[in-house]
Design goal:
Number of domains: 2
Number of helices: 12
Order of helices and strands: HEEHEEHEHEEHEHEHEHEHEEEHHHEEEE
CATH superfamily of the largest domain: Response regulator
Largest sheet: 7 strands, mixed
Mean pLDDT: 91
Helix content: 40-55%
Shape: globular
Strand order of the largest sheet: 9-8-10-11-12-17-18
Number of strands: 18
């Protein structure tokens, strides 16, 4: 009886030791490091969720094709396990927990969007699992004291500030119309915009909330036609941008300047047959920028590769997602370990150049090494117009009236 009790206790101790030890290491299956991500493949964020997934997949492909990740004298491939969060925050959090607790994933890639990242971050923090995220820009992510969250992109409050500055350069005391989705990302964009509006002494004449489904902003645009503001600013992710462009075209709304988030020219042309010319679009990245790395080369080379596989020009959501894989590769190799805390510490010390731009994290996990850019859709193409250092084209202002086009 004593022998049986001893054996049972020994087995239990071994199992506890194994469980405790395995939680300290990334999930490695043979020669493959498995990363996890809950991603929006359906629901209202599906378009950008797909861009995000394709960016991750391209990052995995390029790193694997170039020899993979070298840790402890061995070479490993990367792989990502995905679940569809259906653009739902509660589901995203549940899936993150499933990836960690049931699937054994110990390194996470972020979802698409600030709201979903905000939902997942407490989960990864609770389990001490590093998350490199590329598409959650809300300021709220960087005020919680998270130690395992690292964002390669700029925070949301920086997105459209330069559009307000451009307007201020053109007209003193300009009037502004605002139409914003009520999610955490767009409200942070608005905070930055309002700070710049106040600094320049501008006047807000319309301040509307976009409908939840982002499918109709006729009421706002009718106000714009009546009040004729100098600048119209819209923030509603890709669906909101598509709705705005379509209805501005349909209603023939004239403004001197139009600025949006997520208004990619390629998507406008594909889905609406054009019609987005002269729109100013905030972007984390553009292919014309002169950043380079040893894996993707330049932005133009990245764009050529992406287009050859997916048949469209890469939006910045894809580019920043690919960059997240480069960050993980470098951190694994500098840590020379699969111990998640050692890799977390390596991530915190990241200071690297990529085709997407510089990446260096502050104590809050924000990337402090890259500026936002502003492009204008000109003849159906994205042309960078700000900041001036990176500009490839001159701003077209004012936007030609519909009767003159």
């Amino acid at each position: 009886m004593k022998s049986l009790k001893f054996i049972t206790t020994l087995i239990s101790s071994i199992l506890i030791l194994f469980a405790t030890t395995s939680l300290s290491f990334a999930k490695v299956v043979g020669d493959t490091i498995v990363l996890g991500s809950a991603i929006s493949l359906t629901g209202k964020y599906a378009t950008n969720g797909e861009h995000t997934q394709r960016g991750y997949d391209l990052g995995v492909k390029i790193i694997n094709d170039a020899g993979g990740v070298k840790v402890g004298g061995k070479t490993y491939k990367l792989e990502v396990k995905y679940y569809d969060d259906e653009s739902n925050s509660a589901k995203a959090a549940a899936l993150a927990q499933r990836l960690i607790e049931q699937d054994g994933v110990q390194y996470m890639l972020g979802p698409y969007g600030s709201g979903l990242t905000i939902a997942i971050a407490p989960v990864t923090e609770k389990f001490g699992v590093p998350m490199v995220e590329a598409n959650g820009a809300s300021r709220a992510l960087f005020t919680k004291g998270y130690k395992y969250l690292f964002a390669v992109l700029n925070s949301a409050d920086q997105y459209l500030n330069s559009a307000v500055d451009l307007m201020a350069d053109k007209k003193k005391g300009a009037t502004v119309a605002l139409a914003f989705e009520q999610d955490s990302f767009s409200l942070d964009v608005k905070l930055g915009v309002m700070e710049r509006i106040k600094a320049h002494g501008m006047k807000v004449v319309i301040d509307d909330a976009l409908p939840k489904e982002l499918n109709d902003m006729t009421a706002t645009l009718q106000k714009v036609k009546a009040l004729k503001p100098d600048l119209l600013i819209v923030s509603g992710h890709s669906k909101g941008a598509m709705t705005a462009i379509k209805q501005i075209n349909d209603l023939k709304v004239d403004v001197n300047m139009l600025a949006m988030t997520h208004c990619d020219a390629a998507a406008i042309n594909k889905n609406l047959g054009g019609g987005g010319d002269y729109t100013l679009c905030a972007a984390q990245w553009h292919k014309s920028l002169s950043y380079k790395d040893n894996y993707f080369g330049s932005g133009l080379e990245y764009a050529k590769l992406f287009e050859s596989i997916y048949k469209y020009d890469p939006p910045y959501q894809a580019a920043e997602s690919s960059a997240a894989l480069l960050v993980y590769k470098e951190a694994f190799e500098r840590a020379n370990s699969f111990d998640k805390d050692k890799v977390r510490d390596a991530l915190a010390k990241t200071d690297m150049q990529t085709f997407y731009g510089g990446i260096k994290f502050n104590d809050a996990g924000q990337n402090t090494s890259k500026p936002m850019v502003l492009f204008q859709v000109q003849d159906g193409k994205n042309n960078v117009v700000a900041p001036i250092k990176w500009a490839e084209a001159k701003l077209i202002y004012p936007i030609p009236k519909w009767k003159d086009r």
